[in-house]
Amino acid sequence: MIVENEEIQVTSLLSSTFQSEADAQENILRPKTLADFQGQVRIKENLSVFIQAARSRGDSLDHVFLIGPPGLGKTTLASIIANEMGAEIRMTSAPALEKPKDLAGILTNVTEGSIFFIDEIHRMRPALEEMLYIAMEDFEIDWVIGQGPAARTIRIPIPRFTLIGATTKAGQVSSPLYSRFGITCRIEFYQEEELVSIIRRSARILETSIEESAIRLLAKSSRGTPRIANRLLRRLRDYASVLGNGTINDEIVRVSMERLGIDGQGLEEQDRNILRTIIKFYDGGPVGAETLAISVGEAIESLEDFYEPYLIQKGYLKRTPRGRMATSMAYDLLNMPYDRKPDENQGILF
Ligand SMILES: Nc1ncnc2c1ncn2[C@@H]1O[C@H](COP(=O)(O)OP(=O)(O)OP(=O)(O)O)[C@@H](O)[C@H]1O
Ligand SMILES: [Mg+2]
């Protein structure tokens, strides 16, 4: 298990962001309104329309599905939606819901128009998923009373609520569940400019002085991820107060990133280790995710959810039907000679 802690080991600084709701500091920096939520313009514009429309009809918002890698703002968006709807929000995560009565207990207690947020919805148990379908569609739940031949099912009406489901793994969500969400938001990695405004906003809240060029350097090293940008900003603040005069400048960013083992595009040692392992031990791939996770000593979830999406986005890694492959860019990054046939790099093997 990954323990959340500010004194986290240097090598796990980034990947520890993988599970991090426990990070109390995160709440201070969490935007509360759509206007304050930086970047993701299309998502914001759409949500703003749907929220206004629902409000003007006096209706509850359609169910919302939030998809994206860790730390991009799914939980944040869920609270913002509740806030903008002026609605109550209840938060849980799918693994916490064990028995049908856990879910039934919540569903029968939601209030009219309120928001029910289920994190990691891809981990919902099948028996509970069935209950959720009916709740989402008909605002009723089926409840079995009695046992054996005397058992019968009654339908209990529940208030009209909005379900917000979040996942890092849309591919693992069953299609009946997926199809019951009226609004789907795919949150992508943030652009450099967007991270710049996130960092500027966070520095203001944390009352930290940071030079414009240092903001830009930090944005480049933040893996397109607000949570990482914020976390690195706090580390830089520490370095600036110990090594410098309190102001974060380019030199502080450069020295700190070197000490943290993070390069100019946000890759840490484990990223390079993953690519090196594929190249050295598996001839550049394809190699299955489970084998790869064991080889690099990483949990499969953090390999798949945290490391891979960014390596893929940066063009260093490919997912093929037969497994993971390092691209020619990965060889270049590691200064290793690339001598594979072009066909192999496409994942078309003969
Ligand atoms: N668009 C944004 N603008 C400003 N800050 C943001 C934005 N998105 C995320 N953040 C910051 O990043 C932090 C992490 O976001 P959040 O907890 O919502 O991520 P998540 O997608 O729910 O991650 P996980 O998959 O790990 O649950 C928040 O505390 C918030 O401060
Ligand atoms: Mg979250």
Descriptive notes:
The chain is α/β, with parallel strands linked by helices and 350 residues long. The protein has 15 helices and nine strands. It folds into three domains: 40-186, P-loop containing nucleotide triphosphate hydrolases (Rossmann fold); 192-260, Helicase, Ruva Protein, domain 3 (Orthogonal Bundle); 269-345, Winged helix-like DNA-binding domain superfamily/Winged helix DNA-binding domain (Arc Repressor Mutant, subunit A), CATH 1.10.10.10. It has helices at 24-29, 41-57, 74-85, 100-107, 126-138, 175-178, 192-205, 212-220, 226-243, 250-260, 269-281, 289-296, 300-313, 328-333, 342-345; strands at residues 64-67, 89-93, 115-119, 140-145, 152-157, 162-167, 183-186, 317-320, 323-326. The strands form three sheets. The protein has a five-stranded parallel β-sheet with strand order 2-3-6-1-7, with helices on one face. The chain has a two-stranded antiparallel ribbon with strand order 4-5. It is globular, with a radius of gyration of 23 Å. Residues 1-22 have low confidence and may be disordered. Bound molecules: adenosine-5'-triphosphate and magnesium ion (MG). Residues 21, 74-75, 119 line the site of magnesium ion.
Topology:
Layout: H1 24-29, H2 41-57, E1 64-67, H3 74-85, E2 89-93, H4 100-107, E3 115-119, H5 126-138, E4 140-145, E5 152-157, E6 162-167, H6 175-178, E7 183-186, H7 192-205, H8 212-220, H9 226-243, H10 250-260, H11 269-281, H12 289-296, H13 300-313, E8 317-320, E9 323-326, H14 328-333, H15 342-345
Parallel strand pairs: 1-6, 1-7, 2-3, 3-6
Antiparallel strand pairs: 4-5, 8-9
Bound molecules: adenosine-5'-triphosphate and magnesium ion.
Magnesium ion binds at residues 21, 74-75, 119.
